[in-house]
Design brief:
- The protein is mainly alpha-helical and 190 residues long.
- It has one domain.
- Helices cover 59% and strands 0% of the residues.
Length: 190
C-alpha cells in the first residue's frame, strides 16, 4: 500500500481542482480524510483475521461498495443542507466516492500484497493493475516505516505518484484559471 500521506495528497488534489466553490476547503479536507479510511482495516491483523479474508487488509474496506457507503455517510453528516440529486450534491458525492476509490487504485499500483478486493462484498477476488505496478509497497507499522525500506517507498511514491499528481493539479488549476479569465472576458463584452 502507498503511505497515508500519498493517499490523502492524491484525493485532496483531485478535490482541489474539481470541487465546487461553496465549501471548497471543507470538501478538500474531507476528501483527504476519507481517502485513508480503507486502511483502518489494518486492525484486522491485530484481531487475527487473515489477510486474504474479505474483512482482511485490502478487502471490503477497499471496495467500490465501501466507497459508495462512506461517500453517502459523509454527505449525510457534512453536507446535509445540500438537497439530494442536485448538481452540487452529485459533484460532492462523486468527489468523495472517487477519493475513497483512489485508495484502492493506488494500492493496485503497488508491487506487493494480495491485491485489492474492489468487488467485495460480492466477490473477494483481488486485483492489481495488470501491466504496471511501479510503487513499492509500504511497510505496515511505524517502526518499519521509519527505516531504509520506508525511505525507498517514499521515493517510489514521489516519483510515481506525487510528481504526476502535482503536474496534473497544476494543469487542472491552469485550466480553471483559463476558463475563469475567459468567462470574465465574455462578461465584459456582453
Amino acid at each position: 500500500m502507498p503511505t497515508i500521506f500519498t493517499h490523502a495528497l492524491t484525493a485532496a488534489a483531485l478535490a482541489g481542482v474539481s470541487a465546487p466553490s461553496a465549501g471548497r476547503w471543507k470538501l478538500i479536507l474531507l476528501c483527504g480524510l476519507v481517502s485513508v479510511i480503507p486502511d483502518l482495516d489494518v486492525i484486522s491483523f491485530y484481531l487475527g483475521i487473515p489477510y486474504a479474508h474479505m474483512l482482511g487488509h485490502r478487502g471490503l474496506s477497499h471496495s467500490l461498495f465501501c466507497a459508495f457507503v462512506v461517500a453517502l455517510v459523509v454527505m449525510e453528516i457534512f453536507f446535509r443542507v445540500d438537497p439530494p440529486a442536485t448538481l452540487r450534491w452529485w459533484r460532492r458525492f462523486i468527489l468523495l466516492f472517487l477519493s475513497v476509490v483512489s485508495h484502492g487504485a493506488l494500492d493496485a499500483l503497488t508491487d506487493g500484497g494480495l491485491g485489492v478486493a474492489f468487488l467485495a462484498p460480492f466477490s473477494n477476488e483481488r486485483f492489481f493493475f495488470p501491466f504496471w505496478r511501479p510503487v513499492k509497497v509500504s511497510p505496515i507499522g511505524m517502526n518499519s516505516f521509519f527505516s531504509e525500506r520506508g525511505a525507498a517507498v517514499m521515493m517510489s511514491e514521489v516519483k510515481h505518484i506525487w510528481i504526476p499528481v502535482l503536474l496534473c493539479t497544476l494543469g487542472g488549476l491552469g485550466l480553471l484559471l483559463l476558463l475563469f479569465l475567459r468567462s470574465r472576458k465574455t462578461l465584459k463584452t456582453d
